[in-house]
Amino acid sequence: MMFERFTKAARSVVKGAVEHAERGGAEAVTAEHLLLALLDREGTRAAEVLGRLCPVERRESLVAALAEARRRAGLSRADSEALAELGIDVGAIVARVEETHGDGALSGGRRSSGRRPFSREAKTVLEKSLRVALARKEREIGDEHLLLALTTTGGVVAEALADHGVTYGAVDAALGTASLR
């Protein structure tokens, strides 16, 4: 099983992601929840790198970008731009749906209790974290591997991270100078 290879820090991120999903009443644990859990961490390699690349004063902007994407039903900016080229105004659609059904109507279903499954996207991040660790010739999967995987999955989370200077290359370079091991 892959989770046996996760460090304590990586397991804490996964657990934190589940907690974020539960608090938000989400149907499933998503890549966004994994990122939010990473942002909660302190004293780990990923926390140190995030602290350098996206300092605390910029985190509110990152979280706001995730919330805005959630409001657009998870469409990335690239998705919205592609639809605009076809004459589809995502902003106008969101506004009409929210006018009829309330704010955040496109942000996904609500679930009050029960165990949340991991979305396909979140599972992809977890699988990529293993591949990242193996490519780096590291035996365990740390929270830094989860962060690296989040930067490569595409979609809203990777886009929001990149917009805030957190790219695979930047994280990889910062890990080379990270003081924590």
From TrEMBL:
The keyword rRNA processing does not apply. Residues 3-181 form the Clp R domain. Keywords: Repeat. InterPro entries: Clp_N_dom_sf (IPR036628), Clp_R_N (IPR004176). Pfam families: Clp_N. Signal peptide: none annotated. Gene3D superfamilies: Clp, N-terminal domain (1.10.1780.10). This is Peptidase. The lineage of its organism: Bacteria, Bacillati, Actinomycetota, Actinomycetes, Kitasatosporales.
